[in-house]
Amino acid sequence: MQKRALLFIVIVLYLIFFIIPWEMNIKIQAIAALMIIQILWVGKVFPLAYSSLLVILLFSFHFFTYEETLTYLGSDVVWLLFSTFILSNALIDTGLANRMSLSILKLSRGASRTLLPISFASVFVISILVPSNVGKASLISSVLDSLIKSLGAIQNAKNLAKSLFIGITYLVPIAGAFIATGASSTIYAYSLFAQHGTTIHFLNWIYIFGVPIIIFAIFLWILFLFMYPPEAINREYLLTLIEEEIHKLGKMSRNEKKMLWIIGFTLLLWMTQDIHGYSIPLIGLLGACLTMLPGIGVWEWNQAKKSVNWDIILFFASTLMVSGMLIDTGTINWLSKYLNVLIDSQSPFVIVLILVLITSLLRIMFVNVLGFLAIMLPLAFTLGDTLSGVSALLLAKAVFLAGIPGFFFITQSPVHLISYSYGYFTERELFRVGVIASLVWVGIICLAFWVFW
User: Fold this and answer.
1) Can you say whether the dihedral through the CA atoms of 433, 183, 108, 244 is positive or negative?
2) Which of 31, 88, 198, 305 could form a disulfide with 130 if both were Cys (CB 3.0 to 4.6 A apart)?
3) Vertex 199: Cα angle to 197 and 202 (nearest 5)
4) Other C-beta atoms lying within 10 Å of the C-beta of residue 382
């Protein structure tokens, strides 16, 4: 019934703003199109891929030519997303990602207080290797769940479990911004920075965004130590559990070794991008193809193609179209003028603080980070071009980081739903931690703008 009501609203909006023959400002049509798109996506009126196809039709009939629309599907960052699906699933399919997660957790030496920061560190490492937030969340959650269940058989570990799983909820999306290929939303941000004449190389990206992210991870660890002090756990027993999980995997297989070389070679090329000059999307496609190359690869195309989420590919391309539409129709300039009137007289620090707070509050209403950033990042760039005292690039960096995490509700991303499904924390506990964590995150972003960037 709810989907039918939403579909009815979509049809009415389309008839009023696009079919009825009266003169209509294209900016008003752009806003109407944005409303239609968000209703389709957020309301899940249709499957994601079909809604994205409807967006392509809407834009082709009313904003672009069909040929212009198709250029978004052939964008280099769309193919980078395609490549990351193959690379990340090859890592998981071979078992290498699972082995590396357990090996990192083993560094805790069985200490419960050390296990939390080590698990946070594993999120960052896996983010480099598995450029999919859902993939990271599923992998790390399953590993930690196995450990917590084994511990729960002999002693209470509720506080440790809460800290670990709420920590995953926050850090997996944020760590996705740690590198340029860390998540689909990060790949989109990377492409948008490049479109505005700012090509940030792979290592520079880690430096620019990694510092505030790591600082937040440290604050989050301290916060959990106070809110949910970890129980004293027998170190030898916990270490034995981790070693048993590693032992179940057996010796490193031939495919794991191959995948280790492939991902290592790909990362090396990404890190030396400023030397050889090849783009991140091109290197990503090379790495993906190596996973299927006879004698070198770890699987065949028939297996690899199943790992590509074509729904997300179409959705990603359609979000690029949304950004292009908002820019080409002048809607972003129109919206930025109203914001400019409100904040232009403020100091640069206050401007950034206001934009970060607005972004954080609006993020509550958006389930999909990518769709949200498709609106906010172009707005940040345009607003930065018109404001005095603050550059568009700095403003976009702040808005990008502010728009990624969802601190308050389990419905704010699929990662939240995955970690919540294990039952180690309640919605109230997530909100309680989120209030403090969100304030810390806003403060770190503002501090990064003022001191670091």
Assistant:
1) positive
2) 88
3) 170
4) 26
Single out the residue of 220, 242, 231 nearest to residue 123, CA to CA: 220
pLDDT of 239 reads: 78
Reported as type and span, the H/E element at residue 435 is helix 427-447
pLDDT of residue 223: 93
| CA atoms of 441 and 420, how far apart (whole Å) | 21
CA dihedral defined by 233, 119, 399, 194, rounded to 10 degrees?
A: 170
**Alpha carbon 428 to chain centroid, angstroms:** 24
The terminus-to-terminus CA distance of the chain in angstroms comes to: 49
Q: What is the pTM of this model?
A: 0.81
DSSP 173: H
The b/e string for 107-131 (b: 16+ C-beta within 10 A; e otherwise) is: ebebebbbbbbbbbbbbbbbbbbbb
Q: Are 287 and 263 contacting, i.e. CB atoms less than 8 angstroms apart?
A: yes
Q: Which regions of the chain are under pLDDT 50?
A: none
Tokens of 80: 């980078």
Phi/psi of residue 303, nearest 5 degrees: -80, -45
360 close to 438: Cβ distance less than 8 angstroms: yes
Task: Determine the Cα–Cα distance for residues 235 and 151; give it in Å rounded to an integer.
Answer: 11
d(CA 419, CA 138): 8
Dump pLDDT digits (tens) for 244-265.
877 887 888 899 899 989 988 9
- Provide the CA 342 distance to its chain's centre, in angstroms: 30
DSSP state of 330: T
Half-sphere exposure of 355 (CA within 13 A, CB side): 34
- Work out the number of other CB atoms within 10 angstroms of the CB of residue 296: 12
